[in-house]
Structure formats: C-alpha cells, structure tokens
Amino acid sequence: MPLVVQKFGGSSVADAASIQRVARRVVETRRAGNDVVVVVSAMGDTTDDLLDLAGQITDDAPAREMDILLTAGERISMSLLAMAIDAQGVKARSYTGQQAGLRTDTRYGKASIVGVVPERITRAVTEGQVAIVAGFQGVNELNDVTTLGRGGSDTTAVALAAALEADVCEIYTDVDGLFTADPRIVPSARRVQHITYEETLELAAHGAKILHLRAVEYARRYGVPLHVRSSFSNKEGTWVADTAATSAEEEAMEDPIISGVAHDRSQGKITVVGVPDVPGIAAKLFEVVAAADANIDMIVQNVSTQRTGLTDISFTLPEADGMATMKAIQGAAETLQYSEVRYDDQIGKLSLVGAGMRSHPGVSAKLFGALSAAGVNIEMISTSEIRISVVTRADHLDNAVRAVHTAFDLDTAESEAVVYGGSGR
Amino acid sequence: MPLVVQKFGGSSVADAASIQRVARRVVETRRAGNDVVVVVSAMGDTTDDLLDLAGQITDDAPAREMDILLTAGERISMSLLAMAIDAQGVKARSYTGQQAGLRTDTRYGKASIVGVVPERITRAVTEGQVAIVAGFQGVNELNDVTTLGRGGSDTTAVALAAALEADVCEIYTDVDGLFTADPRIVPSARRVQHITYEETLELAAHGAKILHLRAVEYARRYGVPLHVRSSFSNKEGTWVADTAATSAEEEAMEDPIISGVAHDRSQGKITVVGVPDVPGIAAKLFEVVAAADANIDMIVQNVSTQRTGLTDISFTLPEADGMATMKAIQGAAETLQYSEVRYDDQIGKLSLVGAGMRSHPGVSAKLFGALSAAGVNIEMISTSEIRISVVTRADHLDNAVRAVHTAFDLDTAESEAVVYGGSGR
C-alpha cells in the first residue's frame, strides 16, 4: 500500500471547521487505499499568542522553557485532528515529536534533527491507523522537548517521509503550488508543474515563501518527492523532485529554461565607504559582521582608484540584523579605517531562477535588457549556476518583477492563483 | 535544607500578573532557605477552553486524545512560571509528568498513580534549581500521557511530596484554609488551624471543596503533612496531619470536638416505592444502579408494613448521574417489581464532622435539636464514626448550616474569610 505523508500548516487547522476539513481530506486519502501519516502545525495564531504570553512574563525567557511553551500548540492541534478523523470512522492516534522518534540536538529554539526512529509510527501504520505527528518539535538526549525553528513542520514531514520511505510528502498550503512569480505582483503568473530541488532551493533562499529551505535541503538529500498543493482544492500542485520532467524526455525539452522570478523586500544594504584597498581588509570587515551574527547575502566591492587607494564595500543582509551589524562596524572603526558607513533599507532583490540557464547563454543579457527597458536601475548583481539576482530600489521592485516575468515568456493568459502567502512554520 | 512542595491551582496562575505573583512567593520560599518543588495546574479557564474546542469537533473524543489535548494546559503554565522565576534571579526548570516520573495506569482521563520515580526532580533540587512540575498528568507504560481526573494536581503534589520525603506539601488556594463552614453561608465561620486526615476526608467527601479526596487519602497513607493556605497572603492556613494538635497536649484538650459543617447541594434523591420486602431485592436494585455507574451516597430503607409486605428504598447520588440511573431502574422494572420510582433534585445535605464526637455522646441529639429549633425537617440520616449527615429540603440547607454551626459553638466574632471557592483541579 502506498504511504503518503501529508503536512498541514497552521492556517489549514486554524479552527474547528478547518480541522474537520483537513480530517475529510485525510480520510479520503486513506479510503483511496493509502497508508497516511499526517504532520500538523499549531492552530492559526496559537504560537503568536503563546509568544505574547511569554513576553508578558519576561524579555529573556530561557530557551528550554520557551520550547516547552511553544510545543503546547501542536499537542492541541494534533489531538483535535485525531479526534476529528476518528469521528469520521477512521482510526487515528496522535504522537508528539518524542513519541514519533524525532531526535534532535540540544539547541533549543533551533534544533537540528540528528535521527528519526519512528517505531511507533510504523507500528500505528501497520495496525491500519492514521498517525498524526506534531510538527516543529523533537526530543533531545536529555529527554527534553526541542523546537526546530522556522520551517520546522515542513522539515518534520520531510524527515518522517524519508525515514518511513514514503512514496510522497504532500505539503499542503493555501495556494495551488509554486508559481513563476508572486501572483499578487504578477497576476499572470502560472503554477509550476515540475521543478528540481536545486531550483526550489534557490527560489526559497531568495524570497519565495511557500517551502522552507531546510525542508527542501532535507528532501534533496534523501530524495523525497514533494508535492506542494492547496488544502482548499483537489488540483495537482507542484512536484519537486530530482529532475523537473516526470518521465518523458519530450516534456523536459519543452520545459522553459526559467522556473520563476522570486523577490525579496526584507533585505537591507550596508555600504562601507573609503576602505583602504589592502589585502585582508575585507576579511577583517566580515569577521566583524560574522561576530554580529548577521547572515550576509550579496557582496560587491568597487574597483579602487589608483589615485586614492581606497575602495567601497557593499553587502546585503536581513533587515532584522541591520542595526546590530551597523553598531558592530561602528565599534570597529579604528581597525577598519573606513571613512563612512551607510545603511539603506529601501532596497529590493529580484532573482531569476532556472536550471535551464546553465545551457542557455544570453539569459543575463535578456534580464538586464528587460530591466533597462522598464527603467529599473541595477545596484548590485550576483549569480549562481542557476540564478541571477539583482538589487534595485524597493519601489521599482514590482515593476522589475513584472518586466522580467514577461521578458522570459512566463505569463499565462489567466492566473490560477487566488491567494499567495507564507506556509506558516 | 528543608524541602517544600508547593501546589498552585488554576486560579493562582490565571494570567501573567498572577504567575508573577506566584513566582515571587516561590522565590521568597527559596531565599528563606528551602529547597522548593512546585506543582502547577493549567491557567484559569484553559481546560474549559480546550474542552470546548474538543466539543466543536466531536461529542465522543477518544480518551487518549482528550488527555493529550488537556495536558497542553500545564505545559503552558509550567513553562511560563519557570520563566518568571528565572527572571527573578532563581534558577528554575519545568518538567512534564513524564519527565518527573509520575507513572500511572492506562485509564485515560482518570488514571491512578502506580509509581513515582522523580530522578530528574531530585537532580534539579540537588543542583539548586526550583523544579516546576505539571500537575494532573502522568505517563503510562505505553509512553502515552494520561490525566489523573478531578483533583489531579493536588494528588500530583502529594505524591511528589511523599516520594521526595518533603517536609511539607503546601496547597495554595484562594482562601485562608479550611473553615468550620462555607463563609458565604456562615459569615462567622472560623479557620480551622489543625485537623486530622480522617476529618478532612469526611469534609471533602461531603461537600467541602478546598481539598480533593484522593489527595487527602494519599497524604494520609504516606503521612505527608499538608498546609492549606492562601496564595494571596502570608497568613498561616490549615494544617492537616495525623493528629489535630501539633505538639502540646493542652492544645489537643482544648480542641473543639467538631471540626466543621460541610454542605452539598449537588446531590439528588431517588425513591423506589412499593418494592417487595424479600431477601435480595436491595441487592438487585443496587446491581442495576452500579451498572449505571452511579456513585451512591446515603441509603434508607423504610420499615415495611406487615400488611402489604412492601417497602420503599431511597438513596442519594450526584445529580449528574440522576437521569441515567433513573433510566436504568425504569429499564429493570420487571425484575425489581416496584410500583413507582421518583426523582428529587431539591435536596440538600449537611454533614457535621469531628474526631471528637467519637468520645462525646449526645452529638446527634444536639444536632437534631438544633435543626428542629430552626424548623428544618430531616429526610434522611447517615453516620460514620466521626460524621453525621442529614438530608433536608434544598431551600432549608443554608438555615440548617447556620443553626448547627452556632449550636456547636463554632462561630467566631469576625470572619477571617474573604472568598470561598473551589481549588481548581
């Protein structure tokens, strides 16, 4: 019997009616002749409510206690979902991360999975039950509960699918799959039918919010086929697997070279002006930045002029890390010997992703041409094998995304998308 | 260093401010030179909210899933309390029932403790930490969470105190201790300073709501001294121990023979009229009642008249069991051969409790005299070694309690009590 792992995020189980709807889908999947394991997040705003409660107590909660607090949310959703499935006549049991054998390291709040020993889940499935597993949580070697951090429930689902050798891991969300661009910006964006892990990673890393980076990395490592689809319809969603094409080579040949256009408005840019252009100065700067715990993304160093022997270095980073990083650089002014440091949070980033661009020359030229024709100025550029990212002014970003989407023939006559949003945790 | 177990009910941790207040008390106790283990219930209405959610899903939730759902409440309160104590500069860690070694049988929803192996709690205390333990919950041999049913958090506290050989188990509530009567009915009721387990059991079994029967039984079996006190003040409360007096014999001699007057408005009365007065008929009736799962309390059988050879049997039981039991008796009409069965939910029960009445004759006479003088008719009577209970009309109950309280010299000039309520779960 095929084994399907289904993951439902917080918005899919926001209230009793939603839980009943999810239960119906699980029951249908079971009755269609599948073994089913379900991974579920906390209901709707539960996690925010719990964070708010903790905030009323202290600004500096011990991470271990915070994890105990937050994991209460999945206990509620998973037991309610088991009740709902049971009430529809299919046996269901819920399991915590600990009971499901999701073993992690001890980094509370951002634990990594170190092993999955899903004995109880295997037994439940063998006995014909639907197993409901709490997403986002595991247990460490001290027998303490841990949380996996952002995207944790997706990661739980993929890790269980890998350990159970599931036939597919279905990630349910509130849209029909991955799109060639955010339909709120590009109404003519179309659903991507097939996409590789690699491209999905690039999209997720550069602003697309449907799938979490960690989960996709895990899926790629263990070859877990993902099916991203809507919990509101029965339509096919987006399949994420090793190769974009499913079977026929014809299909692969017809595949567009570009999978999609991601955008990201959450980055800021720091420019360090007038740095002595001597060996080791960049290393020193990024040591300071690393010590401030900032995840930097793009880096550009200007060609220095012979005359002054000075250069400028710009880099982008999440806005949330902006102030702390600025402080760190200002604190190291003596070492770094720059003349000025500036912070700019009015930037936008556009990323064009597609495995096809490897073998298709001229993609960058086309991209830059489209942006130029749309009157969008490019401030920074970075590229990978299958991605080109550019930084623009924030208020030019929407225009830029639309122009590029059209230039690469991604538009469809009519959009399938209704809403486009994050997938919860 | 003395070891104190402190138990706080749901009303003591109803919101962030209450949790901060409880944290201050724990910190004071710790700084006064005690090791401290805290047992905590779910916040205020959490349990009711969760039950309500389950009710929106199904009327017939599997008990295992219901226990997973309900135990989310203590995860929230215990982690928040640990954060609050930590924020006040004292190290604290929270532990689930499973982590604290509270092992139970597998009767979900009403599990019994089968063993307490508090290794982690002992270790935490040895390392100078305050250990916060989730009340009301344990783990069974399947590694599934169970709940202990009503009064569960009190029982958790007493069981831990016994296993840890604590010097005292403090039960915090919203009143100053046990009173000679409910101060809402008898404003002149006074706080009981010392009382035996036995008397406390009788009081708890017959309507007093401050301490739960199971917890008192557990405390008696293991000789755990209980101190019932207010979480709103630092006043001494009521000490429950083997003997009413603490040390001096003089004190014992001065102790009143009566500890208090309990009342109970939650009972109903079933009267089976015209039952053949032959051997075995009562046994048959109570077999039927037992099959309906009712907890019967008082039973009275009229003396039958020689002429008819028929008798009437009345018994009291919780109102909640009334309808189901009536149905069961009606269903067995053929076997029981009665002529009529009646249900009466307008009854009240008054119980006079005191170890002193063992050696003091005339207690019943005084009780009946006081009720008669107050114009209260007695419908049923039952007695134990240290208790006399009478059933009256419900609307006579308050008058009856006041009359008896006065007759036995329990009144004080001024009441200490502010509020009188249940102690949560």
Automatic annotation (TrEMBL), chains A, B:
Q: Does the keyword Transferase apply?
A: yes
> What are its E.C. numbers?
2.7.2.4
Q: Which Gene3D superfamilies match?
A: Acetylglutamate kinase-like (3.40.1160.10), VC0802-like (3.30.2130.10)
Positions with a binding annotation for substrate: T47, E74
Known catalytic reactions: L-aspartate + ATP = 4-phospho-L-aspartate + ADP
CDD domains recorded for this chain?
AAK_AKii-LysC-BS (cd04261), ACT_AK-LysC-DapG-like_2 (cd04923), ACT_AKii-LysC-BS-like_1 (cd04913)
Query: What does the UniProt keyword field contain?
Result: Amino-acid biosynthesis, ATP-binding, Diaminopimelate biosynthesis, Kinase, Lysine biosynthesis, Nucleotide-binding, Transferase
Can the keyword Amino-acid biosynthesis be found in this entry's annotation?
A: yes
User: Which Gene Ontology CC terms are recorded?
Assistant: cytosol
Q: Entry's Pfam families? A: AA_kinase, ACT_9
Q: Which PROSITE patterns match?
A: ACT, ASPARTOKINASE
Name the Gene Ontology biological process terms: diaminopimelate biosynthetic process; homoserine biosynthetic process; lysine biosynthetic process via diaminopimelate; threonine biosynthetic process
What does this protein's UniProt record list under function?
Catalyzes the phosphorylation of the beta-carboxyl group of aspartic acid with ATP to yield 4-phospho-L-aspartate, which is involved in the branched biosynthetic pathway leading to the biosynthesis of amino acids lysine, threonine, isoleucine and methionine.
Family, per entry: Belongs to the aspartokinase family.
- Protein known as: Aspartokinase
Organism, as annotated:
Georgenia subflava
